[in-house]
Amino acid sequence: MTSSRDSIERDAQVMQLYEQLLEVEQRLIPTGLHTFGRAAELKEKADLLRMVASFDRPEHGAHALPRLVAEALGIHGYDALVQEATTSEMKELIDGVVSEAVRHFCENGADASASWLHARVGIERDKSLPTFTLLGDISRQLDANNEIESLLRALRGEYIEPGPGADIVQNPQVLPTGRNTHAVNPYSVPSQVAFDRARHTAEALLARYTHEHGRYPRALALVLWGLDNIKTAGEGVAQALWLLGVRPVRDALNRATDVAVIPLEELKRPRIDVVMTVSGIFRDLFTPTMTLLDKAVRCVAALDEPLDVNYVRRNVSESMKEGASDFDDAVTRVFSNAPGNYGTNVNFMVMDSQWDKEETLGDLFVTRKSFAYTRDSKGRTVEGREAPHLMNDALSRVEATYQNLDSFEIGITDVDHYFEYLGGISKAVETRTKSRPAIYISDSLSPQTKIRSLEETVRLETRSKTLNPKWYEGMLKHGFRGVAEIENHVANTFGWSATADAVDPWIYTEIARTFVLDPIMFERLWELNQYSTKSLVRRLLEAHDRGYWNPDEEVLERLRDTIEGLEDRFEGSKVISK
Length: 578
Ligand code: BEZ
Ligand code: MG
Hints:
Blueprint: H1 2-26, H2 42-52, H3 65-72, H4 78-83, H5 89-121, H6 125-143, H7 147-155, E1 162-164, E2 180-182, H8 192-213, E3 219-224, H9 226-231, H10 235-244, E4 246-250, E5 256-261, H11 264-267, E6 273-278, H12 280-285, H13 287-301, H14 311-321, H15 327-330, E7 334-336, H16 346-351, H17 359-369, E8 371-375, E9 381-386, H18 388-395, E10 400-405, H19 417-433, E11 438-443, E12 450-453, H20 454-466, H21 469-476, H22 480-500, H23 505-517, H24 519-528, H25 530-545, H26 553-577
Parallel strand pairs: 1-2, 3-6, 3-10, 6-7, 10-11
Antiparallel strand pairs: 4-5, 7-8, 8-9, 11-12
Helix pairs in contact: 2-5, 3-5, 5-6, 8-10, 10-13, 17-19, 19-22, 21-22, 22-25, 23-24, 24-25, 25-26
The protein binds benzoic acid and magnesium ion.
């Protein structure tokens, strides 16, 4: 009995490992920096086109290739299959045919690929042709690069055509590059598509939380960025609305200016309280959207519903009972920087090692982001009133923090902004509730909705980028700048230790092994960029000093020797260059 249970368990573990490997393998990563004026190479183009082809594009009459293949193979329930967390032979079969079809397309063009797909799995040519035709248009635009020409025209003071700003996969209309980016009409946000996708994501987020905690979170803290909501036509905004249990309502001019309450019978769960910290860019671009979000919270707080199914009302009434505030204050949930200010500065404090206790980082976040944007009961606009007491009160009930990832190229260790925002607010919550919140990230990169914990996302980013030879060799082709990118990744990873304690110690060990303790690699880095190489070693030692990593004494010794050696070499090279 025991042995058969053991073997079932073992098989399950092997399967889980296999799925994790597939996830890392299939993750799309940039394999180098973009070189201004240079078009994408074939391999990179094929990867992009495969991703583009995995979404339905009704505006072009184009069907998602995986869906067409699934239907042709008689696999039912494609949508459910895509949403499944686990992989399966069916999924692999579909992905294999799609990859082959896109490869075929890159070599032989649209017409031939539609015929190939017909011969391979029996899809009628006229069904797949619109998709391949779209890929053809995108492929031609990827080959034509107007960036240098446009820059020269801009320098001559000439007119540059505008184009939408987004990810190619999300909106192929961004091509050709080399145009001025225009934003969106804030009143169009969230779009219907964004709302539909947000619903899946928000429900998946709650499912993950309830699976791990056995109940719904009393309140969630959401980070909303401007560019993301442009790219996704407001998915983040729509997620907030769906969590609250309302949908956007459009006025006679088709502007999203109001909300309608989704009945509890339809929602089938409590209304979740949300505290929103929006970036300075979001505040500037989406003023009417902030009004919409504020209105949504006020509307939900005022509903005549039992407290155990309306957490907004419960939290607001608790806050008022505690005597801290009146309704207007207690219901404030939309916060940003002071007018004219941007960012949290948490990233600068981390990068410059200017903090003693981690809670300072959370406090700095609140100092920078606790300006309330709301309308009071009389309809008077409050635009950026300093209100740390209200933010502290709202955060004191938060049990999970969350942000959406929206791009393949920029992930949570590529830039310092993710840890300054999501890490910053998580630390602020931890200090105010005396308990670390659950921290989640979703990506709206692929058709399937995937919610990951922050720790899982750090692991995935580390394996698919920082420690992946394909990634770092791609970076090293760019010489000085490439080494700076590697060092940035290490520093941003460190930022996740500082703000959220989300980095497994093995990550630092492997970084040390890959970039410092391997003498050949270390020499390459040093030759290309002494400054970043030195910072990288220093950062590893700082990670140890601050208790984020406890390597073997031998490793530590070698790192210390390395830094001492570097000081000498650095001084030496300065003397020589004089
Ligand atoms: C934004 O789009 O809101 C944003 C961009 C970069 C850093 C932080 C926020
Ligand atoms: Mg920046």
